Amino acid sequence: MITQEKLLEVRDLKTYFMTDRGTTRSVDGVSFNIKHGEVLGIVGESGSGKSVTSYSVMGVVDAPGKIVGGEILFEGKDLTKISKKELRHLQGNSISMIFQEPITSLNPLLKIGYQISENIILHQSMNKRMAKQKSIEMLKKVGIPRAEELYYAYPHELSGGMRQRVMIAIALSCNPKLLIADEPTTALDVTIQAQILTLMKNLRFDLNTSVMIISHDLGVIAELADRVLVMYAGQVVEEGNVFELFKAPKHPYTLGLINSTPKINDTKYQLDSIPGTVPSPSEMPTGCRFHPRCKFAMKKCVSQEPFLYELPSGSKIRCWLHEDKEVNLYDKS
Description:
By secondary structure, the protein is α/β, with parallel strands linked by helices. The chain is built from twelve helices and twelve strands. The chain has helices spanning about 50-60, 85-90, 100-105, 110-125, 130-140, 145-150, 160-170, 190-205, 220-225, 240-245, 250-260, 300-305; strands at about 5-20, 20-35, 40-45, 65-75, 75-80, 95-100, 180, 210-215, 225-230, 235-240, 310, 315.
């Protein structure tokens, strides 16, 4: 059940990477919030800053990356200002994360049961016997057959879909308040993707866990999210209710993403595409960062960077088009 109380509030987050070639602004002034019981979807092309945003919230940004500005408020506590000990207590306990590649996230030398039990013992103060019992319960909850037997299996003995279920079991083993899922269905075949999405949807309602799901797949976001954040070149360019955003996107980039997604009832021979590529974080264009690829770009877009503007509907858009009432995003001419 979604409440109006904010579980997570990110304010003006800036995560930069300091390299020999200069400073790379991977996340540059991102703000959003997640309410209790809500699923927030974050979409965008590769290089838009989605994953770095999630790593920043989780507190796992490695050098040369660094959070250089902003606040990450979890239940009112700024995670950028707490000690490493406090952060470790939250990681895997109140905040858990499912990473993109389970085969690289699981230790190949340790049995999966041990890897789940280890997290439970660390955060739940259970002994080994109790942790084993809880681990087997979690394996059953995520739909793994023969849980008692596979508790003793190594990661390489499981399929990709099974390994992803193990990652979900580890992430949910301590009943986190916030689950961060970074591309949870990447590299899985379509039938396994559907199973994982159904599993996450059911677990969300069973445990009332808030979810931040990162994906470039709009179908995944439409299936799970209540609200959507669209990122481009390290910034939020649009935010809104999932139904409103897919029905009537306000930003040209969002429209381009939706139009480039295949639809089951669409008979077009060729999909639309967005020209060009996401700019390098170290070489951002002046003005609006999307203007070199935007067919609606005006003179103002080249020289002035737009701010994130809140529309009367409650949606937010980073675009100068909101000032021009004559512009129609759906004009195909």
